[in-house]
Amino acid sequence: MMMQIPGVLTPDETAAIRDAMLAADWVDGNVTSGRQSALAKRNRQLPEDSAVVRDMGGHILDALGRTPLFVAAALPVKVFPPLFNRYGVGEGFGDHIDNAIRFRAGSDFRLRSDLSATLFLNDPDDYDGGELVAEGMPPVKLPAGHLVLYPATTVHRVTPVTRGERIASFFWIQSMVRDGAARALLLDLDRSIQDLGARTGQDDPAIVRLTGVYHNLLRRWAEL
Ligand code: NI
């Protein structure tokens, strides 16, 4: 399931991150690629260990923590510190699947990538092409500050940019609930409880029991 999460960053936050990024030193995007994806990838990235990446990434992690839809949909146990890329004219990323296990150089941080995320940092009007196309899902290209989440198990690509430049942050999430179908059921149940609770009040006995069912399912399925 692909999910769009609007307004993760405000326009001011997005502009501040974009300005800091554009002033930094960029390297070839293949620094984070596996062997197959290196053949398909043409873009630039900020070095993973740079101060600007740590600082901007920290702001994004804070913003994710304040976004209830992200937390409910991803049920994150770990989020890879966000990385940043840009695609200019003629650059793109052909079909690939993201690595299953991501390590962070120079640390013992590692994560199983259950979900992949792209946070768009400039507006669709700024460039042509640069769409994220994941197998079996419609192409996406979102306004600045909006996030797309999709299963890391899917073949996907970024179509070549033909005008302007596409600027984004990307990262991976290890979910407490590894199975995407189980995660989708929990999200559906969570949203239904919120909707019903808004109509009947959270102290309605049926809402209390349904909330218990949500937590008891999460208790069965969660791995921390
Ligand atoms: Ni990818």
- Output the helix-strand order: EHEHEEHHEEEEEEEEEEEEHH
- According to DSSP, the number of beta strands is 16
Give the low-confidence spans. Answer: none
Overall body shape: globular
Spatial extent as radius of gyration: 18 Å
Helix coverage percent of residues? 25-40%
Helix and strand content put the structural class at alpha+beta
Which CATH architecture of the largest domain would you pick? Sandwich
Q: Output the CATH topology of the largest domain.
A: Jelly Rolls
- What is the straight-line distance between the termini? 22 Å
Query: Could you name the CATH class of the largest domain?
Result: Mainly Beta
Mean pLDDT: 95
What is the CATH superfamily of the largest domain? q2cbj1_9rhob like domain
Strand content: 25-35%
The distinct ligands, each listed once, are: nickel (II) ion
Compute the number of structural domains. 2
Biggest sheet features: 8 strands, antiparallel
3D structure, described in words:
- This protein has helices at residues 11-22, 35-40, 51-65, 68-74, 180-200, 205-221; strands at residues 3-5, 27-28, 41-42, 44-45, 76-79, 83-87, 92-96, 101-103, 110-112, 115-120, 127-128, 132-134, 147-151, 156-158, 163-164, 166-175.
- The protein is of the alpha+beta class and 224 residues long.
- It has two domains: 3-175, Jelly Rolls, CATH 2.60.120; 180-221, DNA Excision Repair, Uvrb, Chain A, CATH 4.10.860.
- The strands form four sheets. Strands 1, 2, 4, 5, 6, 10, 13 and 16 form an eight-stranded antiparallel sheet that branches. A four-stranded antiparallel sheet has the order 3-7-14-12.
- The longest helix is centred in the last third of the chain and has 21 residues, at 180-200.
- The protein is globular and about 60 Å long.
- Bound molecules: nickel (II) ion (NI).
- Nickel (II) ion (NI) binds next to loops.
- Nickel (II) ion is lined by residues 96, 98, 116, 156.
